[in-house]
């Protein structure tokens, strides 16, 4: 059994229009939401074995706040700039290359790729969760997808089960 945690970065700031998109930091709202989602990940016992994170500033800041909420020991973290603009099939290929000993993998990335990856991989789940996922994948939302597989190389589109879809708004 493998668990995929898809986390969209927290709300980013547009306060400095001259900043490149890649370099935008988190907004105040994002700085509040990321620790809350991290605490929920910890409370649910979903500690990742491996984290794959976009190199963009807002994803790094989101991850730092989530990891602080998770506490020790920290998981292995790999930063990959390909995640920044990757389409869902590209993200799936990155996942399929991960070692089998990482039973729970957290991907911290961006839309539209992350939302499209969730929709691509999920084949079943609670109807209400599926509808919420299809409606919107907001900032700092977390999709939890379970695969009945022993190796990441074996995951395929439509084979995942959406077990949770958490948003900061629903945690209040």
UniProtKB/TrEMBL annotation:
Question: What are the TM regions of this chain, as residue ranges?
Answer: none
Query: May I ask which residue range the UniProt record assigns to the signal sequence?
Result: none
- Where does the chain bind substrate? 58
Q: Which Pfam families match?
A: His_Phos_1 (PF00300)
Name of this protein: Histidine phosphatase family protein
